Amino acid sequence: MNLIKSAAVAAxxxxxxxxxxxxxxxxxxxxxxxxxxxNLANDGPYAGTSQNDFYHPADRIKQIQAQIQQGVxxxxxxxxxxxxxxxxxxxxxxxxxxxxxDLRDWDRELINQKLDALVKQxxxxxT
Length: 127
Fold this sequence. Notes:
The chain is an all-alpha fold. It has six helices and no strands. The protein is rod-shaped and about 100 Å long.
């Protein structure tokens, strides 16, 4: 009779363990894979793009710098705008370095506000 009880306990144990083993065998993506740079957000404020590409200030800085180099501004205005743009660019680099290469949302907003103020000061830079 002990043999029958042992077989029954073994069968019950196998029935309990088998689904658990089957679930762990399914390959789940790691956090790094699911949050990788190639994965795009499906909803929210960054829909259709990654968070960093949504409105990165470095792109705006390059665009404004290109306009200044094309001669949209002349003389002292161009020099002042270039100096202000250089200061904003340095601030951006500092804020990125401060958080180990990560640009925080509030820093991104602050840099974009500074760029907005620069464009407001020199209306010829508006796109």
